[in-house]
């Protein structure tokens, strides 16, 4: 084979092999990431609650004590530390994008700390009711709602003056905890943990407009903008799903047995509600289309709070048990898992007889001036499915097989092309590949295949056997 052609084959072989590697990597690596895409970020202290800052691409991590940290969602590392007032015991946090501030209820000091996201320092402390717990930002009014568990009230803070502008009285013994703001209705939903119901407060009148009775004790809430629904965590008893159109329960969603939920968040990209279960060290994703669990992902120890990063499509999880924050790509939260496990359903057995009572009030007191009862005679109960392990599953379950098949096909094509190239050679040089063996005889050069019997006999009888005898002259056969 001529040297230039051999060199061309060698270069082509190298190029084809590189293409195979690139294709295989592009297909297989995403699959591996979907299986093991959970990243762990070590943070100082005991992370308790999270708040996502969409303007700066940062996540504020507030500890159980007077400390905290700021994570960059670009580098996934701590970029700043926070210092809160001594004796503080924050349980939740909310981001005010209009002011670039983080509002953190301080249950230990009966106040709310306001942190600037430009300096990462506390710029104001606002006195509220006893044991402030939940917090929600109302962008339409430029206000921040804070639940006071000890006083059974809501404090309404203006983000312009950083002062309380209204106080909303809740039903006696309600012990309010989590809050969720519904921008479509201009309402704030309040988890009345002590009364097993959810109070609905109008942000126009700062008055209760409805009470939704539940069969679970609510702790945390998340607003689902895609469906116009409120997901209510029942502290290990599963979710209640409330329609914001009717202010009534539309279904209950059980969670895996033994799972006690901390806080919840909504992922608008995947249409799932995410809950951290600090007893099982997992987070669960519930589809808002089917109201079933579609993924369980193992994270750090005792996950308490979750926050969704809309800029990166990632879920941040505060692990209060091991001083870490888990970073979970939301790609692992969108594929239905198949195996069924035992679910916790202690509070769901009576769901069919649960009544939802709507109470319209004309003042901020807990006494109702008018009431309308709506009985949901047969609330549907959804069976949850889960997998025993974590780690997630890819969005396309057969991605690995497709990658392997394509890689094999490309490799076979490469081998076929290389084989044909070596065996055939270039057409213009085909004659150079034909070798005709020659045999010396007296005075002439004859091809072996055309030497006659007579020639062989003559050579033998004259004593010249294949080259012996008189000198030979090599002549080219014309």
Assigned CATH architecture of the largest domain: 7 Propeller
For this structure, what is the CATH homologous superfamily of the largest domain?
A: YVTN repeat-like/Quinoprotein amine dehydrogenase
The level of helicity is 10-25%
State which percent range the strand residues make up: 35-45%
Question: What can you see in these coordinates?
Answer:
The chain has three helices and 34 strands. It is mainly beta and 478 residues long. It folds into three domains: 3-29 and 400-431; 33-399, YVTN repeat-like/Quinoprotein amine dehydrogenase (Methylamine Dehydrogenase, Chain H, 7 Propeller); 437-478, no CATH class. A hairpin with a 5-residue loop joins strand 8 and strand 9. Helix 1 runs antiparallel to helix 2 (399-424).
List the helices and strands and how they pair.
Blueprint: H1 3-36, E1 39-42, E2 47-53, E3 58-63, E4 67-72, E5 77-83, E6 94-96, E7 101-106, E8 111-116, E9 122-127, E10 132-138, E11 143-148, E12 153-158, E13 163-169, E14 176-182, E15 187-192, E16 197-202, E17 207-213, E18 221-224, E19 229-233, E20 239-243, E21 248-253, E22 255-256, E23 261-267, E24 272-277, E25 282-287, E26 293-298, E27 303-309, E28 314-319, E29 324-329, E30 343-344, E31 355-360, E32 370-375, H2 399-424, E33 438-440, E34 445-447, H3 453-461
Helix pairs in contact: 1-2
């Amino acid at each position: 084979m001529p040297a230039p052609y051999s060199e061309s084959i060698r270069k082509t072989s190298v190029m084809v092999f590189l293409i195979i590697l690139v294709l295989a990597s592009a297909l297989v690596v995403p699959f591996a990431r979907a299986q093991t895409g959970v990243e762990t970020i070590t943070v100082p202290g005991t992370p308790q609650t999270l708040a996502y800052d969409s303007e700066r691409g940062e996540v504020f991590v507030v500890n159980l004590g007077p400390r905290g940290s700021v994570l960059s969602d670009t580098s996934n590392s701590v970029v700043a530390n926070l210092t809160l007032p001594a004796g503080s015991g924050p349980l939740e946090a909310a981001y005010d994008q209009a002011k670039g501030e983080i509002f953190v209820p301080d249950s230990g000091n009966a106040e709310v700390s306001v942190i600037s996201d430009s300096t990462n320092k506390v710029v104001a402390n606002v006195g509220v009711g006893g044991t402030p717990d939940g917090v929600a930002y109302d962008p339409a009014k430029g206000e921040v709602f804070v639940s006071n568990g000890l006083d059974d009230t809501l404090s309404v803070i203006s983000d312009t003056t950083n002062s309380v502008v209204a106080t909303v009285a809740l039903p006696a013994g309600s012990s309010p905890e989590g809050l969720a703001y519904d921008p479509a209705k201009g309402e704030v939903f309040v988890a009345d943990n002590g009364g097993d119901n959810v109070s609905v407060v109008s942000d126009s009148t700062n008055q209760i407009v409805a009470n939704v009775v539940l069969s679970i004790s609510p702790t945390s809430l998340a607003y689902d903008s895609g469906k116009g629904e409120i997901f209510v965590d029942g502290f290990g008893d599963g979710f209640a799903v409330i329609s914001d159109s009717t202010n009534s329960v539309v279904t209950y969603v059980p969670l895996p047995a033994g799972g006690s939920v901390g806080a919840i968040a909504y992922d608008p990209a995947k249409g799932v509600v995410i809950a951290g279960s600090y007893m099982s060290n997992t987070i669960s994703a519930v589809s808002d289309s089917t109201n079933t669990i579609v993924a369980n992902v193992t994270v750090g120890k005792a996950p308490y709070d979750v926050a969704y990063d809309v800029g990166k499509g990632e879920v941040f999880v505060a692990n209060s048990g091991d001083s870490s924050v888990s970073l979970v790509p939301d790609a692992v939260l969108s594929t239905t898992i198949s195996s069924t496990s035992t679910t916790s359903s202690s509070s769901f057995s009576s769901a069919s007889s649960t009544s939802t009572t709507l109470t319209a009030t004309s003042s901020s007191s807990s006494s109702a001036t008018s009431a309308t009862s709506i009985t949901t005679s047969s609330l549907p109960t959804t069976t949850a499915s889960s997998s025993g392990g974590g780690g997630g599953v890819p969005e396309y379950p057969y991605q690995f097989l497709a990658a392997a098949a394509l890689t094999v096909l490309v490799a076979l094509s490469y081998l076929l092309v290389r084989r044909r190239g070596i065996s055939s050679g270039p057409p213009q040089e085909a004659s150079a590949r034909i070798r005709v063996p020659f045999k010396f005889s007296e005075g002439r050069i004859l091809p072996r295949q055309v030497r006659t019997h007579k020639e062989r006999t003559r050579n033998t009888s004259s004593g010249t056997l294949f080259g012996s005898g008189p000198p030979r002259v090599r002549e080219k056969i014309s």
